[in-house]
Specification:
214 residues; alpha+beta; two-stranded antiparallel ribbon; 30% helix
Length: 214
């Protein structure tokens, strides 16, 4: 079941796994009209993004890039949408905080995002899911994350937000609590992403260098 006009034949390959035809494996038609194996859709949504940084390309149809929507996937899509809204709010706040929300250069760059300021902000900044509280936290600009080249080589338990890694009992904001608490890397001035040994904050680059030296 799904929505829209059927756009594929039963003997067409599933465009997620690229190994089996749609029939006779149980398949679903998404609201955008494209059909995929049900278990392939589940696998994509359960795996989510690759690497430590939160990205949301996985929640779009692999063919047309429309948002994946289907009633049988709602239990997986709902928490993803909550996370997306949280990251969007924090990324837009960061853009405003840095005085870039009305910057002409930013608006020009945002053209490739179809003038979607939120999409531009999410692409610009790197956010991670805290292993302890499950909330998204800021970890610097996305370019810094890409330069570190971590890929899958990270321990999710070391991704800890400022509030959950607060070893110095920093003063709590009366408006935001510890949601926006940030630490700098112990070895440079970049924003900390990792919290290791229960004592030490690392940015992506220094964490990567430290692992190489072990």
């Amino acid at each position: 079941a799904g929505g829209g006009e059927l756009r594929q034949d039963a003997d067409d390959m599933c465009m997620i796994c690229f190994t089996d035809a749609l029939y006779p494996i149980p398949s679903i038609q998404l609201n955008c009209g494209h059909v995929f194996h049900h278990h392939c859709c589940l696998a994509v949504l359960e795996k989510r993004w690759v690497g430590p940084r939160i990205t949301f390309g996985f929640k779009n149809c692999p063919i047309c890039k429309a948002k994946i929507q289907h009633l049988s996937l709602k239990w997986l899509l709902d928490p993803i949408e909550v996370l997306y809204e949280d990251v969007k709010k924090k990324a837009l706040m960061r853009l405003e905080y840095e005085g870039l929300s009305k910057c002409e250069a930013v608006i020009t760059k945002g053209a490739r995002f179809h003038n979607d300021t939120a999409a531009f902000a999410i692409d610009r900044y790197a956010y991670y899911v805290c292993f302890k509280c499950g909330k998204a936290y800021y970890g610097g600009e996305a370019q810094c994350d890409a330069d570190a080249g971590l890929g899958d080589s990270y321990n999710p338990e070391e991704l800890v937000c400022g509030g959950c890694s607060d070893v110095s009992r920093a003063q709590m904001c009366p408006k935001h609590g510890t949601d926006y608490l940030e630490y700098k890397c112990r070895y440079c001035c970049s924003v900390a992403v990792f919290f290791c040994f229960g004592t030490t904050h690392f940015c992506n680059a220094c964490h990567d260098d430290f692992q190489v030296c072990l």
